[in-house]
Each structure stands twice: as C-alpha cells, then as structure tokens.
Amino acid sequence: MEEKNQQEKMAIVRQVELFENAFNKAKENGGMWLDNDGRKAPKLYLKPLQISAFNAIILGMHSDQNGYKTNQYTLFSEAKKRGESVQTKEKGVPFLWYNWNEYVNKHNPDEKISRSDYQALPADKQEDYKGIRNREVRSLFNIEQTTLPMVDKTTFDTVVKETGPLKDRTDIESASNEIRQGIENLLEQSRKNLVDIRTDTTGVAHYDSKKDIVFLPPASSYEYYEDYARDAVSMLISATGHQQRLAREGMVVKNGKVSEDAMKQERLVVEVASAVKLQELGISAKLSPDSMKMTDYWLRELKEDPHLPDILERDVNNAIDMIHKAERGEKVELNNRVLQNQIADIKHILPKHYYVADEIKTLPNIDTKEFVVIKEPEQKMADVVLPSGASLGVENEIPGMNKGRIEHALQKEGYETVTFYNVDGSMGYRPDDSFFDGKEVSVNRMNKWNLETLTLLDVSDAVRRSGAIDFEKILMLRNDEGKWALYLKPENEKSFSVYPEKADLNLFFTTIKQGDEETSEKVRQDLAQKYYMAAQNSPDIKIDLFKSDATAEELARIDRVNIFKTKGTESTPSVILCMPTVNGEKLKAREISPQQWQRMWLAEDMQDYKKHLAASLFADVLRKDRTDAVAVGTDKSEQETQSKNPNQQTEVYEEQTEEKSRQSESHGPSESKGNKSKDESPKTETKVTAELSPMLKQFYELKSKHPDAILLFRCGDFYETYSNDAEKAAKILGITLSKSNHTKDAEGKPLMIAGFPHHALDVYLPKLIRAGERIAICDQLETPRQEKDVTEKQKNESDNQEENKVSRMHR
C-alpha cells in the first residue's frame, strides 16, 4: 500500500481512538458498542452525496460518543457559508474523501486520461480504463457543533424530529414500523439475490459456508426483535465473504485452512459492517460474546498494523456495497459462475479438439464385425459408426453388420432415432469432443438379433478438455515496478503476459491462501482461458516481461552477460548479481531482484532476456556516449579534488530524454563516488546562507554544480528532496509536498520538502527517469563532530610523520 502522509496518519489515530472508546463501552454495557436508538444513518447536511460504509461508522461512533441527537454532519466551510459557523474549541472527525479525476489504461499503466476524456469515450472503450483513486482527509462537524441550534432553533428541531432518536420523532409508531419493514425487505431481497436463507430449528442463527446457506430462527423465538435483526444482518454480512463472492481471507471454506489471525480479522469485518447496516436501519449494534473476547486483540492490531485500517475500510465498504446491490434487486452471482459465463460466451471461437473422434475412427473392424455406438439416452438417439457401408441408398451391407438388425436392436432398447456413419469420407463421423458430453460410447457387435457390448469408452477427460486451451504454465509474476501480471504459456504457442483485473487478482491469491488446491487449480485454469481469449480478441493487451526499451545498437554492444548468486554468510545474505561484458570490458556487477531471476528461468530465449536485463540495469553506461549529461563526480579534475576529502558518496541515475514516451524498466543506477571540493565557501556569504544547516549547504553546493539534476538525500529510512526539486518530484510522483515549520531555504522562506521511504526507491526512481529527469542520490552528511575527529586524526598523523622524520635525521 502507498505510504501515508501525516494527515492520513493522524486520521487513523483518531479513527482507532473512536473504536477504542466504542469497544471499551461495550465491556461496560453488555456488548452494546454503537447506541443508535432509531437515529437515521449519517449524512452530509443539506447535501445529496452518498457516504461510504466506513465513513458512516466513523461518523456514527463520533455522534454516539458525544451524545449528539442526529447523525447530520457538515464541512467547516459549508457551515460558515450558511451563517452557522463551527463553535470554538470543537474538534472535528476525519472523513475520507476520494477523487476520481484521472483514469488509467488497464493494459498500459503509463497511459492516463482525464475524467472528461474518459466520459467522452464510448462505453466499450471505457471498459479498458479504471479510475485512479486519490484520497484526501477532511474534517466534518456534527450540526450540534455549529451555531445552528442557536441561530435557527426551528430548523434544528425539525431535523431532530425527522432524523433523530425515536423518542424525539414526530410519529414514533411510524418510525418503529419503518425499522421492521427495513429488516423484512432486506431479508426478502437477500433471499432472492444474495444467499439462500432457511429457518433454523435449533434456535441458533448461523451461516454454513460449505453449503452457502444462512440458517435463521423465526423472529418469534427472540425476546427482542432487535436481537433477531442483529443476527440476520450479521449472517448476511458473513455470506458476502464467501470464497466465490468477496473471498475474504478469514472465511472458512470446505477443504480450506484459515489462520486464527485471519479468523479474528474476519470477525472484526463482520461486526463493523453489521454495525453499518444496523445503523442504516436505526438499530443499535451489539458485539457477540465471542467478539467481546477479541476486542483487546483488535485494538492492538489497529494500533500496530498500519495496513489493517485500510483493509478494514476496503472489506467493510465491499460487504455493504454487495448488500445494497441485493437490496436494489440485482442478482449477486458467484465468481466462478461469472467466469464460466464469460468462457461460454467465447467458446464458439476456441479451437476444437477431436481426440474422441480420432479414437473412434480406429475401432470399427470389418473382420471382427465390431462397430461403435454413441448413445444419447435423454434424446433417445443413437449414432452407429461402421467400417463402411453406412449409406442407406445402395446395397452395401457388410456380412454380420446388417444395418436393419442393428437399428432394430437399438429400438428395442428405446432409441427411436438411429443414424449410421462411416469412419471417414463424406459420411465420416467427426464431431468435436464437446459433442460427447452426457453420451455413452461403446464398442459392439451383433449376436443374432441382439446387441452385444464389448467395451465401454470413458470420454469424460476429453470432454472436460474440449473447447479449452492447454497451458504448460500459468503463473503470477511481478514486473520491475512490482505490479502483478498473469504469465501464460499455451501449448505449442509463444508465452505472453497480461495485467489481470483487480477482482481476478484477488480471487487468484485468495484461493491459494485458503489452501483448497482443487478450487485453486480451477480458478487458475478459468482465468487462463479468460485472458487467453481476451488476448486473441485484443492483442494489444499483451505485455512482454522479457524485453526492455533498449535499441538494437545498445544490445549489440553487450558481448555476454553473467548472472549468478553470491554465497551468503551469517552476517551477509546471498544476493543475485548481473555482470555484463560491454565492448570487451567487464563492468562492475549490479544486484537484480528475485523476480528478475525468476523471469530468467521462464524466458523462452534466456540469452536474449539476459541481454535485455543488462541493457536495462546498465542503461547509463550504454547511453553515456549519446548524451551530454554526466554523473556527479565524474569529471577528472573533480575526482582528484574529491579524493582528498571523502565526505560523501553520490549515486547518479540518468536517462536520455530524446523520446518522451519511452517506458524504461531500468532499475540499475550507475554508481560513482564523489566528494565535495576542499575549497571553503566564499567569505561574502549572505546572512541567510550562513544560517543554513550543513545538509542544506551541501544541497545548494551540489545544486550549483548540477542544476539540471534532482538531488535525493538519504535521511534515515527516507529519501528527501528540497526546494524546487521537491515541487518537481511531488508533481511527477504524486507524493506529498510539505513546508517545514523550522527550516528556511536560501531565500528565508519555509523549506519545501518531499520524500518517500527508502524501500520505495525502485518504484519511484524509474518514474523520475521516464519523465526525463537526471537524478543524484546522496548519502547523509557526516556530523561536524565527525569532521572534527577526522581533522584531528589527520593532524596527529602529520605530527607523527614529522617526528619520525626528525628521529631519522637524528640517527
């Protein structure tokens, strides 16, 4: 997942705080953690916008914990426009806002279009794109946190009577009936469109994931109707996580294995999503006794696992979206059924198999009087394949194989229609393998007037493979940017890869995690068939993971490439290195990723792939003669100066900018060691410059030598860039641009900073290079104390040398 900015991190802290208060309340209140008491679901005051499920539960908890009468919320700016400003010292609640202003091609991640361009596309072309979700965090305030109750009490009271708790409603009885009708409608639509719901006789509501059935006791068996509603909603939410629906990892399935942690996470999703739906119905949410035991675990994980809040948001939103779909009357089909329908739609263009027909052709024998009978009991039809003599219009009967006797024998067995064929020729018998589905195939001969069966043929395997492409390999591979691609190697065809849709990717890995090998293999085959046919219809979706953007000239300069693993030790892990020979010269080896190593063994032409890989890793070396750009510290006189004062190492990454649309997969930076000049700064420094930190001084010194390069400084676990470089990097990479409250730039203004985690370098670096930027990566500066120690050490060594010289002179 993407690195979060500071605003997003603070929002998560606030969200977890609300969950902690709610779960602690449940411990003291018999499991009740969201007291709704008939209030309508959270909404934006006077706005028709729909609120996501996860946002709704956050707003609901905030309203409940502060004792507000309604779940109506507003933005600070909107309240101010209405003359109902937020009261002083009021604290807002985080609201996750998503913008979809850009769309990306599913098959080409570098092709992006604006929202207006997307809407202008025809419907069939829009399917090739998906929205890019940009998240923002905004603060909302309950209308009771504004001055509305004071400046317009009449309006506020009206809102409370329409959306507040039951006791404040105008018509309490009508509101209560509305809640019951909501539950009944939910169950009715879910039974039709989502999952089978049956009455349970044991008195315990439960969801059987193996049978995919919800068992629910009648409402009359419950003391309180609200408990019946809670059980019903909880079971429906559980059903959405089924392997062939949303395939949540913690859902227990037949023959599957689920870890205890995954089961606890699934329970959290069910409780939170159930609370969202109950909130829509106006019913309070209550934790089950089993869930009560997990609250401490949930809170610990929400605080310590930075990804869990995002996972919870995703799973809750997806579960509620599926419930809403069923309520609207839309049928929720199982994923495997959807895949089968997609394959069935394109089955007519698949190459046909004739294994059964080819086998039948060899069986009829004129000497032994044997022939083949294909029976279709349901249609009461039979086909008979003879060695010859199938035509009914001429006298061509074979002794011992009289067609009249054969037909008579089959009619006695109940087959009304009998058709005769030869093994070949114009009356040859050659249906494809799919034709034999549900049919009986046997070798027979006549025994007087009766049919004698000699052998039954099992054609089930051939039928199963009919209409399908056989694959040698079906794998998920990562490209150099970490994106998953489906690698397919059809039999007798060249391999290729495609970027699968997100739903298919989730289904692929979920079935693997759940440990059901039979289901997992079926999903792999189904996805392979689906994307094979998609690639046949649209060849442009194919991608090649084994080629680079290197030119023929650059590849020709590579004589050979040696890729090998180093031997690991206790302190140093084994790494995989690539060492090419370019123009007869061996270059210094550079590390490659395990994914690149895996692709090498899959490549149909391994030597060609190794050359392309080397061309990508050593692009700076191969292209340095075609560009006037130089790496920091490569000038000879500079190197001589730098070698006297080794304070800093700088790595430079550069790429030719002649072709703006080039899509390089290069991850191999050129390395050059360089140090800043020994010369001191001019004595006429301005006051502002004199106040700069050592790191900023170094930044401006390097920037003056290389004004066209973006400088990235390694600061602990992050890479940071500053000033204009930060603005440029933030725009290209889409990362957060922030202002420092403590550090000023050379002009005395707050320093602009942009950064990303060090482990994301391999993702962001190629994006900067493809944008035509030169990049210099600099290690952290040594502290003044370290510089002082080095100076003292050099001085001591000089004194020692002088003493030794004097001593030798005395001797």
List keywords for this structure.
811 residues; alpha+beta; 5 domains; seven-stranded mixed beta sheet; five-stranded mixed beta sheet; 29 helices; 21% strand; flat; disordered C terminus
Q: Give the overall silhouette.
A: flat
- Global mean pLDDT: 81
Tell me what portion of residues adopts beta-strand conformation. Answer: 15-25%
Number of helices: 29
Distance between the termini: 72 Å
Number of strands: 29
Low-confidence stretches: 345-350, 627-690, 781-811
Protein name: Zincin-like metallopeptidase domain-containing protein
Domain DNA mismatch repair protein MutS-like N-terminal: 694-792
Domain Polyvalent protein metallopeptidase: 194-306
GO biological process, one term: mismatch repair
Itemize the secondary structure elements and their pairings.
Blueprint: H1 6-28, E1 32-34, E2 43-44, H2 53-65, E3 72-75, H3 76-81, E4 93-105, E5 108-114, H4 115-120, H5 123-126, E6 129-142, H6 148-151, H7 153-163, H8 172-193, E7 196-199, E8 206-208, E9 213-216, H9 225-240, H10 260-281, E10 285-286, H11 289-292, H12 295-304, H13 308-327, H14 335-346, H15 355-361, E11 371-376, E12 381-386, H16 403-412, E13 417-422, E14 440-447, E15 450-457, H17 460-465, E16 471-478, E17 484-490, E18 496-498, H18 502-513, H19 517-537, H20 552-556, E19 558-565, E20 576-582, E21 585-586, E22 590-592, H21 594-602, H22 606-617, H23 619-623, H24 636-642, E23 650-653, E24 670-672, H25 687-690, H26 694-705, E25 709-715, E26 718-722, H27 723-733, E27 737-744, E28 750-757, H28 761-770, E29 774-778, H29 784-810
Parallel strand pairs: 2-3, 7-9, 12-13, 25-29
Antiparallel strand pairs: 1-10, 3-6, 4-5, 4-6, 8-9, 11-12, 11-14, 14-15, 16-17, 17-18, 19-20, 20-21, 20-22, 23-24, 23-29, 25-26, 26-28, 27-28
Helix pairs in contact: 1-2, 1-12, 2-10, 9-10, 10-13, 14-19, 18-19, 21-22
